[in-house]
Amino acid sequence: MDLKKLKSARGFVKGTITRLYSFVRNELSQLPLETLKIKLEKVNSAFLEYESLSKEILCIDHEDSEDFAIVEDQFCTIATILNKEINSRSPPQIPAATVPSTPATSAIKLPPIDIQTFTGKFIDYVPFINIFMSLIDNNNSLDNIQKLYYLRSFVREEPFDLIKNLPLVGESYQEALKLLKNRYENKNRIVNEHICNLLDLRTVGKSTAGNLREFVSAIRQQVAAIKNHNPNIIYWDHILTCIILRKLDGYTSRAYQLERDLDAEPSLEDLLCYLDKRALALEGTDQGLHHQQPQARWSNYGKVAAHAAAADKPPTCLNCKSTNHKLFNCKQFQLMASKERIDFVKQNKLCNVCLGAHFSKCRFHFRCAECKGPHNTLVHYNEPALAPPVTLTGNNNSNVLLPTARVKAIAKDGTEVHFKALLDSGSQVSIVTSKLVQLLGLTPKQSATNIIGISNAKNHLKYCVPLEIHSLKSAFKTTVTCHVTDQITSQLPHSKINLDELQLPSNIEWADEQFNVPSDIHMLMGANIMFQVLLPEKSSVTPANNSGKQSPAQNDLHIFNTHFGHIIGGSLPTGSIKGQILCNKVVLKCEMDLNETLGQFWTNEKVPEIFSEKSPEHELCEQIFQNSVELKDKQFQVPLPLKLPLSEVKETLGDSFNLALKRFHNLEKKLMANPELFMQYKQFIHEFLSLGHGHYVDIEMYDINKQAAYYMPHHAIIKPESKTTKVRSVFDASMKTNKKVSLNDLQLNGPVVQRDLFDIMLLFRLGRYTITSDIKRMFRNILVDPAFTSLQNILWRDDPSQPIKCIRLDRVTYSIVQINVNTSENLKKIHLLALK
Questions:
Q1: What are the pLDDT digits (tens) for 811-825?
Q2: Which of 164, 188, 186, 189 is nearest to 175 (CA)?
Q3: 576 and 528 inside one domain
Q4: 153-177: per-residue pLDDT in tens?
Q5: Are both 497 and 581 inside the same structural domain?
């Protein structure tokens, strides 16, 4: 399992422990005792799995930042509370002398036997079943139904599914044991898993006492498990010693080689004893370093260190107080404006690089992805782009406040993400930023849409995503389809609003507590949702002057009640806002232009017109064909269009016989292993010869110094669905000789003479009926000039006891590069002759 999957699994288990931690903080007295016992068992198994996953992650990532101590404290708290509650409800034990003598089965209470749960791992089956048989099966005071009850309670996942459908009767107990034994008592599988564990042991990068002891302990555990199933492991010392030495650091490995007797047989036990001694020697050195390190580290920070040790441990994330992530992974922090993040880091005296709290120099050397400066990208300050000033006519002593609300959405990993939304009744669609979509882990879908704004300005959006938003003030939630864009608008409001200039009610629960502070907008709620969240309640706000009296200005600032809380919007007096007046581009409508869409459709569906000029090689190939094609015995005969004269081929081509012979032996082995295939392949070769498409030649004639010759390997192609030839042979003219040249390399590559599929489809419009046919053995109906047949040889024999023979192919052969040119041009010539 890779690192990412391990961390995801650990996060899931950690979430289980966190939920149980929240569970035990509530009132438990009203819950059934069985529920508490199940919760206790669940937290025990979850913590064991958490420990196991953390060890695996540390083996891969030595600098894993997971705070194990917090989870361990939560586990101890949960176990303590649950045990205390369970024990308080258990009846007090009666002294043995006062218990009346009654039959053992009259009022039996199953004893609390604790056996590690079996989840289906093969290597855990033998230890589990041995303990179970010893504690449960051999207990004569239990009947089979009670034993079956215990067995079902100690298995989970696949083993439980295997026996859960058995009826709860005494006869089912032995059947359940048999089912588990047949499934998991697999000796070979268990040994293989232990061997894989040995091979997958983490390499010892640094020889410390702890690393070596953990390494030796893991080896002894796996070797002992293998010995229990395979006593012959005592003969494996050579192999195991080699594996272990490759996983040690170079210094330790060399030290062992210098110490041992090189003439003696390597011993696994000797190597493990040496590692134990080395770990013991390193322990003294490590302890001395540990005693000296704290004094050297904190000598310059006396009072500060003492204060830090005495204070309570702060939460992992300083922003949302969550223990599940660090500040740089906090979704709320990432959605803040850059200036807000910078102010937050300064107020909490955090490091600008790692965003952590420490006194010494930061050990990280991150660079900002925006400006390459020595700080984290999250605290990079973006200068807001100033929009061009806009002359506003009409009311000269007021500005406009747009209504905003803070809402939340649930990310894919279950965390809550709070963000600011702008409510706009003039928009037909809702929009979200791509940054918010990424933080929520959503997958956008393609949806090409034109967003049209002021002056008919268009913005093309390609994606949309369904988003479920929740109110922070009530249980209201709704799902809306939003289009995705990089940025909706600049920060709103553009400058901080002075609330002292307004007479705002004091008993109102605002949808956006900081509506007067500039913040990033991550969602635009259009008319499709704005009127859905509005409630009937509405009021007006009157601006006030310095003396507290009402201004004669119009009451254009209004408060509306919504499911998100109260929103405020309208005209503001000029004195309440400072800074530049900006005009936001408001989305007016969503338009899917029919003409543009139709034009795009025809553009996509247009068949490209390809006008390719013939290359000199194509022209030469066609010229050779036209000048040398002949009609003999009602069949066309063509030469092989070679790039060089036939007399020079023997020097260029080299030897192909030995490689073809090797390939033939491999084919023969495959055919001998399948007698039915061998018979069908033999029939194909015999038919090939009987039709006159090839003939035997004396293999002794082969001499590359006298004549150019090329031997082609061949293999079987099986087509069970074929109605005629289910098995046929394919020849390989691309095999390289000892001079790294093949027959195909020496031939000219002719042009593509077949029609395009689109052209063929268009022909179906010309006639009422269409007739299609298949030419039987089309390629093999063309003769090859006898001067060139020496380049078309294959090796064959009907039985391995016979000598190998050579078959010379007299017809055009598939897998030759010019085959399509020859067949297509010959068909054209036949057509022309028929017309004459």
A1: 888 766 555 555 555
A2: 164
A3: yes
A4: 888 888 888 887 777 777 788 888 8
A5: yes
